[in-house]
Design goal:
With 76 residues, the protein is α+β, with helices and mostly antiparallel strands. The chain has two helices and three strands.
Length: 76
């Protein structure tokens, strides 16, 4: 059965000091995660990223672990 909708989160990444597109590029390079810059949704979205939660829970847990490790790396 395919889901009829998706869940998304739109976390604030402004504390990293990075623009959302720069953050997404680093997340892809270091965390191997593809997320969408908030700036894609207009000026109000800058400082945020959009993450789609469309995978099984075990994969999402691993993805969030990689997200956390990458944010820690970028914050150094």
């Amino acid at each position: 059965v395919y889901p009829e909708s998706s869940f998304y989160v739109f976390p604030d990444i402004s504390s990293t000091g990075m623009k959302s597109a720069e953050f997404c590029k680093a997340m892809l390079e270091y965390g191997k995660l593809q997320i969408v810059p908030g700036s894609s949704y207009g000026a109000q979205g800058e400082g945020h990223v959009r993450i789609a939660l469309i995978r099984p829970m075990d994969i999402l847990k691993e993805a969030m672990d990689r997200f956390e490790r990458t944010v820690a790396r970028l914050s150094k």
